[in-house]
Write a structure and sequence with these properties.
Blueprint (H helix, E strand, L loop, with lengths): L13 H5 L14 H5 L10 E4 L3 E5 L9 E5 L11 H22 L3 E5 L16 E6 L7 H4 L9 H8 L11
Antiparallel strand pairs: 1-2, 2-3, 3-5, 4-5
């Protein structure tokens, strides 16, 4: 029995495939999208909302729902047991603060919070831990993902970034 093979054309991936340098100037793995973003200043282009010496907060480029954030350690590791206690605590404080800021901004009905650790645990980028902060609304899931394998998002990332960025101005004070 033959199965239909769907193809997704992604020509922007060619640069990544052809890049054979394994680390950045700072020694972080060059093939880790999160390590590439970690040292950058917040901007709409990179979707970074906050960063300090230990952690950073970014919007998900391909969100499950609007206002989907990720809180990450700057340390490149896929194991929570590799994180120093102070970084783990800061990651959790930042997650708590992100939930609060999203509540203040758009009043969701609930949240999904979580880490997928390891490939077997469902991590899409297993070598770099990241905590998902996903706001949920009653009725935000409908038949489209089931029937058409399509998720309809009611707002653009740019709109979300512009709404959230001012709220991150004093984010460090919450950590």
């Amino acid at each position: 029995m033959s199965q239909k093979l769907d193809r997704i054309w992604a020509p922007w991936r060619l640069e990544y495939i052809q890049d054979n340098h394994s680390t950045t100037k700072s020694g972080l793995p060059k093939d880790c999208v999160f390590c590439k973003i970690a040292p950058e200043n917040p901007s709409m282009t990179n979707l970074v909302l906050f960063g300090d010496d230990d952690i950073f907060v970014i919007m998900n480029k391909f969100p499950y729902n609007p206002y989907h954030l990720m809180v990450l350690p700057k340390i490149h590791t896929g194991e929570i047991t590799d994180l120093p206690t102070n970084v783990w605590q800061k990651l959790n404080l930042a997650t708590h603060a992100c939930v609060d800021l999203i509540k203040q901004t758009v009043s969701p009905h609930g949240f999904n919070l979580g880490m997928n650790i390891g490939e077997a645990g469902g991590a899409g980028i297993a070598p770099h831990l990241h905590m998902h902060v996903i706001p949920r609304w009653r009725g935000d899931t409908n038949f489209m993902p089931l029937i058409a394998e399509t998720k309809a998002l009611p707002t653009h990332n740019e709109t979300v970034y512009n709404a959230l960025m001012p709220k991150f101005e004093h984010f460090a004070d919450r950590l």
